[in-house]
Design goal:
The chain has 632 residues and is an alpha/beta fold. It is 51% helix and 9% strand. It contains 27 helices and 16 strands. Strands 7-6-8-3-9-10-4-11 form an eight-stranded mixed sheet, sandwiched between helices. Strands 13-14-15-16 form a four-stranded antiparallel sheet, covered by helices on one side. Strands 1-2 form a two-stranded parallel ribbon. The longest helix has 27 residues.
Length: 632
């Protein structure tokens, strides 16, 4: 019978701590380059785990060390995988909130796993299995009984030293009191960009900051509520009140169908594959420098920004789930209803997903037509569902329809073309054949993405045909905005696709355009983003709103220099700001003025967090009610 090899107690502890520490270091550097601030937090983590190994008796020391290595691998590999898919790092609370979406898109996740992930997992498993053969002598010599305490203290001292090195360097970072938002300390405190945070401070510091902000101190702002409200008020009131401009009211009284288009990018818009989308973008108002950021809440964050002109919080909680019932004085639905319109949302999915069944009625929608209302089964294409929706629209009064599409969603494997009802499968297969004929050299997953996304073109064409037959097309406006860039493609595939497409459209560029028979072709070069859509539409439709109750601005307002942020750079008509190098370029104003303007955008996530956490607009309502009571 084989027995586990026994070694002296000291040798056992040394081997175990060295192997586990080596694993932690190997895991880190297999996925991440050295952080700009140095990897002191990795050293602190390794020292903490080693202190457990020295302090716990066998076999608990081995179990604790092995568990730490496995959990660390899952966290680091998971963050790396998420970055490959979305170009961003994720908070733990966000990951938990997106469980249902992740379950539905396991195929896309597995497709992003690299061979090195499997190799490392196998190697980790083998090493941990080998450690099970390691065993100390049963009885610890009397003279060594003080060694555990010494080992623990030594490891904890090393961990403390690493932490002090990290925080010492952070405290010594250069800070200009007038431009605090540009400092490393501001980024560390606010985690305004998870990607930038990880590059600067490392994944271990990101985990600790996530733990502190989102788990250990969930109530950290409540004792400072009044101070927070004053900050928000100052920030929001910095925007000037609305003014009439040359585009005010040109669409007043017309009906609006707004498509929040799943994963729609410029790569999809092609004169041969999607002729209707191409025609509408060419003939209507095309916002050329529009940016739709892919945030942690994915499509739900696009819903939130487009409907409310507010930015979702960036601390790991999905806004539409956590803050669905906050007070929101301004919304697309409520604005149109105030003008006598009906306001209905539609989606070829389930309204329970992303908590839409609570959020949409709360912000003013009278009904939500999901598949339980429309009738077809899950996965039915945009075109099939739009044929049904067309006949459900009541145009006896002005109407606003907000349609959240689905066909462009992951996955992008061959099975995703056929695993549907017969009508949808036939449509996707026909579209795939057209893509194959037009662009035979493209990656197959890109072909599938284009084929599925072509359903939006068919849906929009059916809308135009339907209202043309009814003789009311001249009263219709169609607005189309992609929710975010397409997920899951490497930069090499993105670049290759752009070079092969006749339009050179990118899988990263998200469009926003408006069309109506009465509009003349126009390209708007001013940078804009999701939060600018609501005020821009309200201006075009002559709908009143208060500029200090939202974060976006009207893109036709000549006083507004625009704003777009893709997490790498901030772009306005006045400058381009690189968030990694923290440098300005393409300046049309003095740099000092650019810094002052840019500070507002650097603080936008900080203000968004405060607005949502404190339910700021509910507090405003309470103050207004008190004022009315005092007048009476």
């Amino acid at each position: 019978m084989k027995t586990k090899r026994t070694v002296s107690w000291l040798t056992y502890k040394l081997i175990l701590s060295v192997v586990i520490t080596g694993l932690l270091i190997s895991i880190h550097y297999s996925y991440f380059s050295p952080a700009a601030y140095g990897d002191w937090m990795l050293g602190a983590l390794a020292a903490l785990v080693s202190s457990l190994i020295w302090g716990l008796p066998a076999p608990w020391d081995k179990r604790a060390g092995s568990l730490a290595a496995v959990l660390y691998f899952l966290y680091i590999a998971g963050q790396s995988l998420y970055y490959r898919l979305f170009g961003q790092y994720i908070f733990l609370t966000t990951a938990m909130g997106l469980r249902s979406e992740a379950t539905q898109n396991l195929g896309a996740g597995f497709s992003a796993i690299l061979p090195q992930d499997w190799r490392f997992l196998i190697a980790l498993t083998l090493i941990l299995l080998l450690l099970t053969r390691l065993k100390p002598r049963v009885k610890q010599p009397d003279e060594l009984r003080m060694r555990p305490r010494r080992g623990v203290l030594a490891c904890l001292g090393l961990g403390l030293a690493c932490s002090l090195m990290f925080y010492g360097k952070l405290s010594q970072a250069e800070v200009d009191e007038f431009y605090y938002t540009y400092s490393d300390r501001y980024l560390y405190e606010q985690v305004s960009s998870p990607r930038q945070f990880v590059e600067l401070f490392g994944p271990e510091a990101f985990f600790l900051r996530d733990l502190k902000l989102n788990h250990l101190e969930p109530l950290r702002f409540r004792s400072q509520k009044r101070q927070a409200e004053q900050q928000i008020e100052t920030y929001l009131n910095a925007v000037p009140p609305t003014e009439v401009n040359a585009q005010t009211g040109i669409l007043e009284g017309k009906n609006l169908i707004f498509f929040e288009a799943e994963s729609l990018t410029q790569a999809v818009i092609d004169p041969d594959l999607t002729p209707t989308l191409y025609q509408l973008q060419q003939e209507g108002y095309n916002f050329e420098n529009y940016v739709a950021p892919l945030l942690q809440g994915s499509t739900s964050d696009a819903d939130f920004m487009l409907n409310l002109s507010l930015v979702p919080n960036n601390e790991g909680i999905i806004a539409m789930q956590q803050y669905a019932l906050n007070a929101y004085p301004t919304s697309l639905a409520q604005g149109f209803r105030n003008q006598g319109y009906s306001a209905v949302a539609a989606h070829n999915g389930t309204k329970e997903f992303y908590n839409r069944d609570q959020f949409y009625p709360h912000i003013g929608y009278e009904d939500f037509w999901d598949l339980s209302v429309l009738g077809p089964e899950y996965g039915t294409s945009d075109a099939v569902c739009m044929d049904i929706i067309n006949w459900m629209i009541d145009d006896s009064q002005p109407f606003f329809l907000y349609n959240i599409t689905y066909s462009g969603h992951q996955g992008y494997e061959q099975a995703d073309l056929s695993d549907h009802n017969a009508e949808t499968a036939q449509e996707y297969q026909t579209s795939y054949a057209k893509v194959q004929q037009r662009y035979p050299q493209l990656e197959d997953q890109v072909k599938v993405y284009l084929a599925k996304s072509m359903s939006l073109d068919l849906a929009v064409a059916s809308v135009i045909d339907h209202f043309q037959q009814k003789g009311t097309l001249d009263q219709l406006v169609i607005a189309i905005a992609g929710d975010h860039r397409v997920k899951g493609f490497s930069q090499a595939v993105i670049d290759d696709t752009t070079s092969q497409l006749s339009t050179h459209g990118s899988l990263e560029d998200v469009p926003f355009f408006l069309w109506s028979p009465s509009l003349e072709s126009r390209t708007i070069e001013k940078p804009g983003t999701d939060i600018d859509v609501l005020p821009t539409l309200f201006n075009l439709f002559a709908i009143d709103y208060q500029a200090n109750l939202i974060l976006g601005q009207d893109l036709f307002d000549p006083r507004y220099a625009g704003y777009a942020d893709d997490d790498h750079q901030i772009l306005t008509d006045h400058y381009r700001y690189d968030k990694q190098t923290r440098t300005f370029s393409e300046l049309t104003i003095p740099e000092e003025q650019a810094r002052q303007e840019n500070e507002r955008y650097l603080r936008i996530h900080e203000m968004a967090n405060l607005i949502l956490k404190h339910d700021y607009f509910a507090s405003l309502n309470e103050l207004e009610n008190k004022d009315e009571e005092s007048i009476r």
